[in-house]
Amino acid sequence: MDAVALGPLVFPIDRFAVIAGAAAFLTAVWWAGRRGADARLQLWSGQVLLWGFIAARLGHVGRHWDSFAAEPWRAAFFWQGGFWAPAGVAAAGAITAFALWRVPGMTRAALVTAALGLVVWQGVWGLRTPLPEVGPPVQALATLDGGEIDLSLREGRPMVINLWATWCAPCRREMPMMAEVAAGHPGVDFVFANQREGAGPVRRFLADEALDLPIVVLDTGGALARHYSVLGLPATLFVDAGGRVQARHIGEISREAFEAGIAGLAPPR
Known about the structure:
Layout: E1 3-6, E2 9-12, H1 13-34, H2 40-63, H3 65-68, H4 85-102, H5 107-125, E3 140-142, E4 148-150, E5 159-164, H6 169-183, E6 189-195, H7 199-209, E7 215-219, H8 223-227, E8 235-239, E9 245-250, H9 255-263
Helix pairs in contact: 1-2, 1-5, 2-4
């Protein structure tokens, strides 16, 4: 399992673990307040989450500055994912140490609530399971140019499959970046598989956005999503030269995560 579906919402397991841990932490702080804990406990909890979040994001940006240098405003695009836990934990620890130095009386409540949040975070994160051992589907899929493609005929080349739709806002946001990166990797096949739409909407979208994609598949029945057990869109699968899925990203992907997934594929033979 690498994602959690709550009704129409789909969360990658790492982000859902953070959300669950933060929710458990805030709930515990609220309960402690009702039980008579120091009122400053709530102020501390808000500071821990805020500055821990900011530090984790800035840590990620710093570690991948070569990717952010040309587009520094992307540092604010936190919805793409990309957080470095050690920086967040360090910031939260420093804020906690300072708060407990100033208000020793809330030490027990602070440590208990923080521990509960961390346990829930790690517990949910521990639910992730390895990707299923499934090869490409053995069937012909229609392409936008009127041809067909069988993804099981790899000829020893790695492949990236992106499942998308024109109505999907995250899909639309990430696609220009993906088209740019794809152009720089001639040794990898990039397949953009539109889900459950006809040729007309797809052609209009690509023309309006001036996008030149290498291979566009019209998966009108959603066969690829079923085959790979994908819960939501967008989804990006990194398939090695032998047809095995090496990595899968659910939700909008950042440039650095996209490049890292490509780098993790076996080179063509």
